[in-house]
Sequence to fold (202 residues):
Amino acid sequence: RLLPDHIKPTLRHIHILLRAIVGQQIAVTNPRGWGVTADAVDEETASRSSPPLSTFPSESNSVLDEIAKLILRRRPSYRSVVRRLVQSLTMRRISPDRATMHLAIRHDALVDRNIKKAERTLRFMLEQGMHPNEYHYAAIIEGYALSGHVYTAEKVLWRAREAGFGRDPVLFTVLIHAYGRRRKPREAARIFQAMVKEGIKP
Fold:
């Protein structure tokens, strides 16, 4: 038995488990450090590894189940535990939220290294009436950067700023690290200076 009968699993339980799994996967697939250069990926090959969320049923509980399946694809030992949690949530009609979608986007962008799929997941989230925040955009920015498209990542940053996001250092910090990984210290310094100029304290 996973939990006593009087304790009902919540989305937070799912988030804690999946966040830990995604974090482990990111640590393996994306080494950190200024000396690490991000390699471009074959997005067509990566996109065949799993279906985009836009092809999933619109029922929110089906989406929750599919997100769990995608994240657990490389960690089969966790499937039985998470399956029981998801089944309990489904029976009580508990829907995925923005944090659930953030995990899916991070998995798409930083584990599968498939930024196109991550953007489709973001669009699917919007279609479900969930509004993104800085952390959803940060995952997209980091995904572009890790795929070797740092200047596209910067465009996403300024697009997010125009939409009213990026009022704290989160998005800028992601991009500064991205230029650092690409061994572009001048570009990293330029983004830092732009952040300060925007009135955002480091």
In short: The two ends are 47 Å apart (CA to CA). The first helix runs from residue 11 to 29. The chain has ten helices and no strands.
